[in-house]
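From the pipeline queue, job 12 of 40. The input is one protein chain; the requested action is below.

Action: predict structure.
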Amino acid sequence: MHVPGPTPIRTPQLPTTARSPADRRRVLVVDDDLPHRILTATLLHAAGYAPSAVGSAPRALERIRSDGPELVLTDLVMPGLDGLDLLRALRLIPNGPLAIAMTASDDHELAGEAIELGALAVLHKPFSEVGLAAAIRAGFDAVDDRQRRKIA
């Protein structure tokens, strides 16, 4: 008699990019919510990106200086320096990374302020894999556009 085992848990995955590990696009995830930070970084890695993740804006600034990510995905509401403070700081870094904001807040003024401070988009948590994929692709399109303008 065959007894079926437990059903394997399916890990959600974004569509993969066609890049070698050394050529993966660098994304920094900034979120004080550890489970959300891990899940987001895992999804980005499965999609072929090279994510790193930190739990605060000050740690993000350290990582930006040391690793030079191309794109930052930051939560807006965090203790101490928040995502808006991080967006302000990013504006002061010459050729610094572009940013996408994320928040669980329904505060439209907060989202509007993030856009005014340079966020390319604001994702509302919990966001879908499709929403994350679209925002990251658009973010890297903006990074590439900025690079082409610098060369031209």
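Job complete. Helices lie at 34-46, 57-67, 83-91, 108-116, 129-151.
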